[in-house]
Amino acid sequence: MNTPELTTLLIANRGEIACRIMRTAKKMGLTTVAVHSAIDRDARHSREADICVDLGGSKAAESYLVVDKLIKAAKASGAQAIHPGYGFLSENADFARAIKAAGLVFLGPPASAIDAMGSKSAAKSLMEQ
């Protein structure tokens, strides 16, 4: 399978974790894309990114956690991949599946692994195998 060269990365998070991911991505020669809500327009992660996309809304549920908005932001900015950062989206198998279905790369474990590890009993069973 031919994988296209990764040149642009959207970071689907905010705050310090987004800044850390951006620093590493820039050291790797990648163009970085930050997303922000209306409130975070002037936040540090927004200022440090090469490209900034306004998701609208003032709450995370209206911006950072809206999968369709994140995928549209990635496509509009030319990003080939999305890094979920830590927390909500990194633990969301449906998010990983949606990114893949949109033809983008999810920088994280496969959705099947997220599903398996999301359940403590399933994770324990898997680890015992």
List key phrases describing it.
single chain; 129 residues; alpha/beta; Rossmann fold; 5 strands; ATP-binding; Biotin carboxylase; biotin; Biotin_carboxylase_complex; biotin carboxylase activity
What does this 3D model show about the protein?
By secondary structure, the chain is of the alpha/beta class. The chain has a single domain (8-128), classed as Rossmann fold, CATH 3.40.50.20. Helices cover 43% and strands 15% of the residues. The chain has six helices and five strands, in the order E-H-E-H-E-H-E-H-E-H-H. It has a five-stranded parallel beta sheet with strand order 3-2-1-4-5. Strand 4 (81-83), helix 4 and strand 5 (105-106) form a beta-alpha-beta unit. Helix 4 packs antiparallel against helix 5 (111-118). The longest helix is centred in the first third of the chain and has 13 residues, at 15-27. It is globular. It starts with 7 loop residues before the first strand and ends with a helix. InterPro entries: BC-like_N, Biotin_carboxylase_complex, Biotin_carboxylation_dom, PreATP-grasp_dom_sf. This protein is a component of the acetyl coenzyme A carboxylase complex; first, biotin carboxylase catalyzes the carboxylation of the carrier protein and then the transcarboxylase transfers the carboxyl group to form malonyl-CoA. Acetyl-CoA carboxylase is a heterohexamer of biotin carboxyl carrier protein, biotin carboxylase and the two subunits of carboxyl transferase in a 2:2 complex. It comes from Pseudomonas syringae pv. actinidiae ICMP 19096. Pathway: Lipid metabolism; malonyl-CoA biosynthesis; malonyl-CoA from acetyl-CoA: step 1/1.
